[in-house]
Write a structure and sequence with these properties.
The chain has helices spanning 6-18, 64-68, 97-101, 127-130, 183-186, and strands at 27-28, 49-54, 60-63, 73-80, 85-96, 112-117, 122-126, 136-141, 144-145, 155-157, 170-176. The protein is an alpha+beta fold and 203 residues long.
C-alpha cells in the first residue's frame, strides 16, 4: 500500500467515494494509524481470560488456550476511525461474535452489550449490531497476528460503526437490558457511532 503516490491515492479515494464505501467526512489512508488512550497492556497467556456474563443463564470464562480452540473465521471489511480516516479491504481472522453468542443462553431482555477491555476500558454496542456475520473477535489482521499497539491478543471488529467500538485488548462482554455508556461515550462520544451519519460526538 505504501507504493501509491499522491495522485493514485486520491484516485482510489474518489473511487471508494463513488462506490459508496467512503463515509462523509472521511479520507482514505494507506497506512494503519495507531490511536488509543493509555498505555499498551502486557499480555500474559497464563493469566489471560475471556468472560461472558451479565444477563446470561450461566456465565462463561475461557482461558487463552480455550478461546483459541474455538472455531475460526476470516472476514473482509473496511475500517472507519472517528478521527476521519478510513482503511479499506482489511482481512481479519479470529472468532465470530456469533460463535461466542451461540455458546451462552441469554436471559429475556438482554439487548445491549458492554465490551470490557484491559485497564478498565469499556464500550457499549447494541446486541443487534454485534449479532452480524461480519463481526468478530480478531487475532490476526491481513494474515499476521495483531501487533500489541493494535490490540493483540484480541480485538473486537465491528465494521459498520466507528472504530472506537472495535475495542482493543478485549477481555469480556457483559450483556445488559439497557444501553450503558462506555469510556468514550462518557467523555462526549456518540452512544452509537454510525460513520454514515457522522455520529462522532453526543448532541
Amino acid at each position: 500500500m505504501g507504493l501509491f503516490d499522491g495522485g493514485e491515492r486520491k484516485a482510489l479515494e474518489q473511487k471508494m467515494k463513488s462506490d459508496g464505501r467512503l463515509p462523509p467526512g472521511q479520507s482514505l489512508t494507506l497506512k494503519w494509524p495507531v490511536l488509543h488512550y493509555g498505555s499498551v497492556p502486557r499480555f500474559d497467556p497464563e493469566r489471560w481470560d475471556f468472560r461472558v456474563y451479565g444477563m446470561v443463564e450461566t456465565p462463561v470464562t475461557w482461558s487463552w488456550n480455550e478461546f483459541n480452540a474455538l472455531p475460526k473465521v476470516t472476514r473482509h471489511s473496511d475500517f472507519h476511525c472517528v478521527t476521519r480516516w478510513s482503511r479499506f479491504d482489511n482481512d481479519w481472522d479470529g472468532v465470530a461474535f456469533r460463535e461466542v453468542l451461540r455458546r451462552v443462553n441469554l436471559k429475556d431482555g438482554a439487548g445491549y452489550v458492554l465490551v470490557h477491555a484491559e485497564q478498565g476500558f469499556t464500550a457499549n454496542v447494541p446486541l443487534a449490531d454485534l449479532d452480524r456475520e461480519d463481526v468478530l473477535f480478531a487475532t490476526h489482521h491481513d494474515g499476521y497476528p495483531l501487533t500489541a499497539d493494535h490490540g493483540y491478543p484480541l480485538r473486537l471488529i465491528v465494521p459498520h460503526l466507528y472504530a472506537w467500538k472495535s475495542v482493543k485488548w478485549v477481555r469480556g462482554i457483559e450483556f445488559l437490558d439497557r444501553d450503558a455508556p462506555g469510556f468514550w461515550e462518557q467523555n462526549g462520544y456518540h452512544m452509537y457511532g454510525d460513520p454514515w451519519r457522522e455520529q462522532r460526538f453526543s448532541e
